[in-house]
């Protein structure tokens, strides 16, 4: 904890809060793209501490939450088949599909296993050559390198029974979609630091230039976030659209060059549907033709599955920053962590889960805290 405590110092946090609130001459609307940042903001009460200086809009930065409903149903279809071992990180097992979740498939006897690395799944495939092993590859640019390496590793081992169900999405196209929307309210972005550790910051400069909006790359601890907000407020007050890196201990301009080369080799860019949002052009990855033999959608013939979203769930509006979680009519009533309507209430990075966990159960919680 030694190296985390210095970024949670309450005295230093108060100094930053005072600087932000004194500098702000109006309420600035800032979107944090990452679900981990959302949880840190709500858990530490940063939105409440900043009072009327900043309104946080919670963006579509939870990879579990934006995994489209049809992709969940594809996973369910594959996992329920005989002779299949379906591997996933634990956070995907309770994400609801159109009828059930992966826990339900496992309860009925499906061989659904929680793994801690995609390489665990390749080892399972090596140990079970007579069974098909599928890993559910979900996430942003952060988790993509390890998933890409599992395919490279499987090819090197000559595995013929390992497959990847790919649901990777990219952050900059989502930001472009938000900024291009006629309902956009975002005036500045906190960039996701972990994404930039892999991809660098180069993709954000064109967004700054095109939309005339400041972007500050930030970390996840309270002081990281407050410093990112401080720099954003300074830029907004001065009317300057700039790209800044407020997370230099982890992020460089180039990112992880080796990881980026691996991603370029294994994946190709494709249009991707985002749960509750719709298709965003060139916003995801799929396996390149060189690795098509490892594509679970092709192997099991589930690529054409289409389903309808629940009309009762407003997670799409939450993910676009159009609605706060506690403004949803179902929040805390028909939709809870035990009975979720959407992934934003299930995921450990979901905005709805953060509001529920940290007791932001109604709109008066925030307004009374600010008063």
Automatic annotation (TrEMBL):
It holds the Pfam family HypD. Keywords: Iron, Metal-binding. The keyword Transcription regulation does not apply. It comes from the Bacteria. InterPro entries: Hyd_form_HypD, HypD_1, HypD_2_sf. Belongs to the HypD family. NCBIfam families: hypD. This is Hydrogenase formation protein HypD. The lineage of its organism: Bacteria, Bacillati, Actinomycetota, Actinomycetes, Mycobacteriales.
